[in-house]
């Protein structure tokens, strides 16, 4: 019977083995039973090691096959930005000219609403019958009308008023019939003064409103001073005197004041009118309705001194039409001034154009993966931007990391900006990127996240 805590047979065998190892030179000389037991223990140890190795390698395999891969390298280049052709603005042959464009600051710069373009002298020049526009503004400042259709007070012309017809006829000024005893509204009297540019109406009406010419001229000086028009001088209400002068800058300001007055704006845009006592009257501004011209006033002191103060509305494809105000002083003929004004307006309109900025399929980048697969980034559609002349065009690109890299996947966009306008085109992948193989994953652990 085995005593308690007696060593097991394996332990006894181990002691015997140690004894035999000291006695024999080779394991082949060991007892067969001992060799059998040794082989059994070796197999157990080997099995344990194999299990441990398999467990470790199995965890690596599972990790390698499921771990995220480092993202592809994306390189991009913003497409070259084209430059639109510079607009050629028609020149105006005259003593002086200037133009202002309201609504074009975003294209032309902050100076566009002031004087955008000018030529000739900036000094005061004779303004001829453009004076009558100032006369109308001063009269309406003293006797304002509530609206464009408000007739205002009734004016009855006397015999002395009628005599003005003969006096201005002798002077060679433009006149309109004014029979003694004729009555008409202030609105219609202003129309007779501005539409055919009747000088006898200018003096009669200004004297009637202010009581005398001295009072009218005093009111005119005050009005000019109140509006900061230091470059303008008015010595009489008609413009027949060459001492009535103004600068291009002042005249642009005067034109904007006149265009903002509903009564004046309506009258100067009227091609013709029929008035009791005065008859059928025709506007001296033959450009009304041409190239968007809406007003304002002509003026001439004879050959070589033709002038035009004008407004125009240009539809150029922008959200809102452009409001143009211009002046030409001292042109050689009515025809040359009219032609140059139309050419100027047409050239401004033609200066607004679509500039192509991209074509469909244009490459803007590449995608390269760590496992050697590549694809291109391309603009997905044609794009063009509407702008003025050679206004600078700025391009920006925004690319996102997509969940998959398949052909046709939109991954971002390119945006072009010119003045107030922007246009955007999508960027997509051209070509597909296949996922890495299992072998690549198992052999590139450093590329796994």
In a few lines, what is going on in this structure?
The chain has helices spanning 9-23, 32-66, 105-108, 131-142, 159-170, 186-194, 199-210, 213-226, 248-260, 262-268, 334-351, 438-443, and strands at residues 73-76, 96-102, 117-120, 125-126, 154-156, 183-185, 245-246, 272-275, 279-282, 293-300, 306-314, 322-331, 352-358, 363-368, 374-379, 383-388, 394-399, 410-418, 421-430. It is an alpha+beta fold and 449 residues long. The strands form six sheets. The protein has a six-stranded antiparallel β-sheet with strand order 1-14-15-19-18-17, with no helix packed on it. A five-stranded antiparallel β-sheet has the order 3-2-12-11-10, with helices on both faces. Strands 4-7 form a two-stranded antiparallel sheet.
How would you describe this structure to a colleague?
The chain has 449 residues and is an alpha+beta fold. The chain has three domains: 9-66, no CATH class; 73-82 and 356-447, Peptidoglycan synthesis regulatory factor (PBP3), Domain 2 (Sandwich); 96-331, DD-peptidase/beta-lactamase superfamily (Beta-lactamase), CATH 3.40.710.10. The chain has twelve helices and 19 strands. Strand 10 and strand 11 (306-314) form a beta hairpin. The chain is rod-shaped and about 160 Å long. The two termini are 65 Å apart. The model is unreliable at 1-15 and 17-25 (pLDDT under 50).
């Amino acid at each position: 019977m085995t005593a308690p805590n007696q060593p097991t047979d394996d332990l006894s065998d181990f002691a015997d083995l140690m004894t035999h190892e000291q006695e024999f030179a080779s394991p082949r000389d060991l007892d067969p039973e001992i060799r059998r037991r040794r082989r059994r223990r070796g197999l157990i140890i080997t099995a344990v090691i194999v299990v441990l190795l398999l467990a470790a390698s199995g965890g690596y395999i599972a990790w390698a096959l499921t771990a995220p891969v480092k993202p592809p390298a994306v390189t991009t280049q913003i497409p070259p930005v084209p430059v639109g052709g510079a607009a050629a603005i028609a020149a105006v042959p005259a003593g002086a000219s200037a133009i202002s464009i309201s609504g074009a600051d975003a294209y032309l710069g902050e100076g566009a609403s002031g004087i955008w373009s000018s030529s000739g002298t900036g000094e005061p020049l004779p303004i001829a019958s453009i004076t009558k526009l100032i006369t109308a503004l001063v009269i309406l400042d003293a006797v304002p009308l509530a609206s464009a259709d408000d007739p205002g007070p009734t004016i009855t012309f006397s015999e002395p008023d009628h005599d003005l017809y003969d006096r201005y006829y002798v002077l060679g000024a433009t006149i309109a019939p004014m029979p003694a005893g004729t009555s008409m509204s202030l609105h219609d009297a202003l129309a007779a003064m501005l539409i055919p540019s009747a000088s006898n109406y200018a003096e009669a009406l200004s004297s009637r409103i202010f009581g005398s010419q001295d009072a009218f001229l005093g009111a005119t000086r005050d009005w000019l001073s109140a509006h900061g028009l230091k470059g303008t001088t008015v010595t009489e209400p008609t413009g027949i005197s060459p001492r009535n002068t103004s600068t291009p800058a002042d005249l642009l300001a005067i034109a904007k004041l006149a265009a903002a007055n509903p009564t004046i704006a309506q009258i100067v845009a009227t091609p013709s009118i029929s008035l009791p006592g005065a008859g059928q009257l025709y506007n001296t501004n033959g450009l009304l309705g041409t190239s968007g011209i809406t007003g304002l006033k002509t003026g001439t002191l004879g050959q070589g001194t033709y002038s035009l103060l004008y407004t125009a509305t240009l539809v150029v494809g922008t959200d809102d039409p452009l409001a143009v105000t211009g002046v030409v002083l001292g042109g050689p003929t009515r025809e040359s001034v009219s032609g140059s004004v139309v050419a100027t307006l047409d050239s401004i309109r033609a200066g607004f154009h679509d500039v192509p900025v991209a074509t469909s399929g244009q490459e803007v980048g590449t995608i390269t993966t760590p496992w050697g697969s590549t694809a291109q980034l391309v603009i997905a559609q044609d794009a063009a931007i509407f702008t003025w002349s050679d206004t600078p065009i700025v391009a920006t690109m925004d690319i996102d990391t997509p969940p998959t890299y398949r052909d046709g996947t939109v991954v971002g966009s390119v945006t072009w900006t010119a003045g107030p306008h922007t246009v955007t085109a999508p960027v997509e992948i051209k070509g597909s990127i296949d996922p890495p193989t299992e072998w690549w994953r198992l052999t590139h652990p450093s590329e796994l996240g």
